[in-house]
Amino acid sequence: MFDFNEKAKEIVSKMTLEEKVSQMTHDSAALERFGIPAYNWWNEALHGIARSGTATVFPQSIALAATFDADLIEKTADIISTEGRAKFNAYQEFGDVDMYKGITFWSPNINIFRDPRWGRGHETYGEDPYLTSIIGAAFIRGLQGKDKNNLKTAACVKHFALHSGPENDRHHFNAVVDKYDLWNTYLAAFEYAVKETAVEGVMGAYNSLYGQACCGSEFLLKDILRHKWGFDGYVVSDYNAIQNIHENHKITKNAKESAALAINAGCDLEAGNTFASAVQAAREGLIKEERIDEAVRRLIVTRMRLGIFDSENKSQYCSISYKTVDCAEHKVFNLEVAKRSVIMLKNNGVLPLDASKFKTVGVIGPNAHSRRALEGNYNGTASQYITVLDGIRKIISESGAQVLFAEGGCLFKDSKEDLTKNNDCLAEAYTVAKISDVNIVCLGLDGDIEGEEDETPGKTLVRGDKQNINLPQTQQRLLKTVIKASRGKPVIVAVISGSALDLSFADKHADGIFQSFYPGALGGMAIAEAIFGKFSPSAKLPVTFYKKTEDLPAFDDYNMKGRTYRYFKGEVLYPFGFGLGYSKFHISDLKADDKSCAVKVKNTGSFDAFETLQAYIISPGQKEIRNLCGARPVFLKTGEEKEVKITFSKTAFSRYNDNGDLYKIKGEHILTAGFTQPDKQSIKLYGQTPLVTIIKI
Questions:
Q1: Angle at 636 between CA 632 and CA 640, to 5 degrees
Q2: What are the CA-CA distances from residue 424 to residues 127, 368, 373, 493 (Å)?
Q3: Element (H, E) at 96
Q4: Which residues of 465-504 are buried (b: 16+ CB within 10 A; e: fewer)?
Q5: For residues 607 and 581, is the Cβ–Cβ distance under 8 A?
Q6: 555 falls within a domain
Q7: What is the per-residue pLDDT for 316?
Q8: Could you give the CA distance from residue 369 to residue 643 in angstroms, rounded to a whole number?
Q9: What is the pLDDT of residues 246-265, one digit of tens each?
Q10: Could you tell me if 344 and 311 lie in one domain?
Q11: Same structural domain, 39 and 117
């Protein structure tokens, strides 16, 4: 087998110091005498190829997690990597090596969505370390393929570590967290990605941890990542994170010292330009040139594994055609993924709606006909979009009923038009709601409201964290207006957002509630089909929906006490792992040992449908209330029965100590297997109690 490391060492040994450093920034220079072409490392593929023209826009990451289906997500990422290769091949032929044109993707984001106020939480796979690990690993496998030395594309997990808000403080924030929470919550998915998938890249975070800037932290990059976990890929900084070390963290005095600190700690590649100072730093003895050699070797090896370094190692993926981009086959699959990601939170018996029974259907709300609400962030541009209004019109057209649409206002502004008074769209919404036989109200947020910190000079901050989990006041008024105007006629609420919101009013007054986490280009069709019973919803919440903001600890407190289903002891609105469907499933015959459990699952309802078996462990003497330790979706036709087996995670009966070493928890562990958590609220809402047994360790 061709030895990439030896070949890379040979090339690096012939480079000048300046040539080496030229390879250590995201826009790496061409070195013609070595046959090294220019290459830009910066590309994004969070839920489709981003910022590079047309691509399949899949549901946002948090929506992918809601499927609880690793196999589905691996196939999703495989399609993304196919389109990424197709675009790369076309750009190479044209000679375009700009940003967003390469096949080193800085995805996925496997930070823990610890607080619903965090604006970037929808880029993650939710609040649970196990779910984040298995969905993240599936995504990495889909991007990279099965052969480490013949990568389809290269994945990069981010942000290492503890980047989960606040966004406005991220460039100077110092995260301080209990070591137990560090290892058992925040680092678990990163370890899984490194050890179980051989992920090619790791991106450092903006913030500091224990006073060390994450991109210059020997504790993170040397002690843990390289030595403890054996990572052999490349480490990249977040954009301008090296500059932050001296400008914001104030750990160093200048760019030269920041470059030296980061490179010495184990950062190989910079998104930014501070590493240009590394030449002078090396000449002054702040960096050993051997360490620079090591960094450049790693970067060259990654490019060799991708088969884009020279003609000797041409990749088999170089022939993928641009015709695959957002093609018909990918659209069909995209719609299936979107349907699998729709969560039904409430149904008082009105759902599914029967289109033939209505003469007039009211569709109301700022997210009813919003393309931005489908896209999320870090998104591409699809060749076709179907909003919720589009989807409902398509379904209703078959029955001959009339669809009336009223936007009803903006997502958060008090008026839509500049010169009008506040609530200028409420009268139209009231009228539509009053005369319609059923009303579908589309509320929520979009990626322009919650997301990454907006650093555009002179621009008023719009994106970023939420101050609270309330629906914006304008939407609260709209929903109350529709409920009043409907006068007892069915009202269905469809929420599109990237995070948990306080839906208490809707829960009390609406007949049905759906939650979609930025469902992708065709997501409106998926939501419409769910409402009208074209399939049975099966997705589960990957985050907890709390009742009010006041139930949450301080946003900048990184300790897990009082956060997520594992530690929150109060009553929630909708629990992690909860989601309803139109069919009914019976579970029986639980068999278990310390490795796995198996149950019989039967579809006793009237819909062929998916349901997700979930296994939770309640361990003696632990901080956690319970832990998800296994999950597996199952599809059953009406009347069909199957035995479903779950293999437990390696941490099911273990925990990490303060040094990051696993130890067994002795004693009697309570295992529950069902379609929800075993808490009172889940049992009440779902209407079924999980099976229970004891496992002795």
A1: 125
A2: 38, 18, 22, 21
A3: none
A4: bbeebbbbebbebbbebbbebbeebbbbbbbbbbbbbbbe
A5: yes
A6: yes
A7: 87
A8: 42
A9: 999 999 999 999 999 999 99
A10: no
A11: yes
CA 690 and chain centroid, separation: 28
Q: Do residues 612 and 552 both lie within one domain?
A: no
Q: Which residues contact 683 (CB under 8 A, 6 or more apart)?
A: 676, 689, 690
Distance CA 212, CA 241 (A): 12
Q: Give yes or no: residues 341 and 296 share one domain.
A: no
Average pLDDT rounded to a whole number, residues 577-581: 98
Buried b (16+ CB within 10 A) or exposed e, 325-351: bbbeebbebbbbbbbbbbbbbbbeebb
Q: Which residues are catalytic?
A: 238
pLDDT band, very low/low/confident/very high, at 505 (cuts 50, 70, 90): very high
Residue 427's identity, in one-letter code, is A
- With beta carbons less than 8 A apart as the criterion, state whether 693 and 669 touch: no
Chosen domain end from 261, 293, 324: 324
- Residue listed under structure tokens 């998915």: 189
The whole-angstrom separation of Cα 177 and Cα 199 is: 26
Q: Distance (Å, rounded) from C-alpha 133 to C-alpha 113?
A: 13
Handedness of CA 63, 65, 71, 75 (dihedral sign): positive
One-letter amino acid at 586 equals: H
pLDDT-derived band of residue 309, with 50, 70 and 90 as boundaries? confident
Positive or negative, the CA dihedral 689, 691, 693, 695 is: negative
User: Is there a domain that residue 178 lies in?
Assistant: no
CATH number, position 669: 2.60.40.10
In a domain, 181, yes or no: no
Position 445 scores a pLDDT of: 97
Residues 228 and 250 in one domain: yes
Side-chain-side CA neighbours of 115 within 13 Å: the count stands at 27
Best CA proximity match to 335, nearest among 402, 390, 378, 411:
390
Closest CA to 666 of 615, 621, 629: 621
In this structure, are 406 and 477 located in the same domain? yes
Amino acid letter, 39: Y
**In the 8-state DSSP scheme, what is residue 82?**
H
Overall number of domains in the chain = 3
Comparison of pLDDT for 311 and 245, the residue scoring more: 245
Q: Which domain holds residue 682?
A: 585-696
Contact 599, 588 (CB under 8 A): yes
Would you call the peptide bond into 166 cis, given omega within 30 degrees of 0 as the criterion? yes
- Residues of the chain with pLDDT > 90: what percent? 96
pTM of the prediction?
Answer: 0.98
Quick check: is 573 in a domain?
Answer: no
* Statement: residue 457 has pLDDT above 60: no
Q: Are residues 547 and 412 in the same domain?
A: yes
Q: How far is CA 61 from the centre of its chain?
A: 3
CB 640 within 8 A of CB 599: no
Per-residue model confidence (pLDDT) at position 333 = 98
Residue indicated by tokens 């503890």: 162
Give the domain CATH number at 495: 3.40.50.1700
For 383-398, the DSSP string reads S----HHHHHHHHHTT
Paired residues of 404 in beta bridges? 362
595 and 528, same domain (yes or no): no
CATH number for the domain spanning 306: value is 3.20.20.300
Q: Domain boundary at 536, 567, 598, which?
A: 567
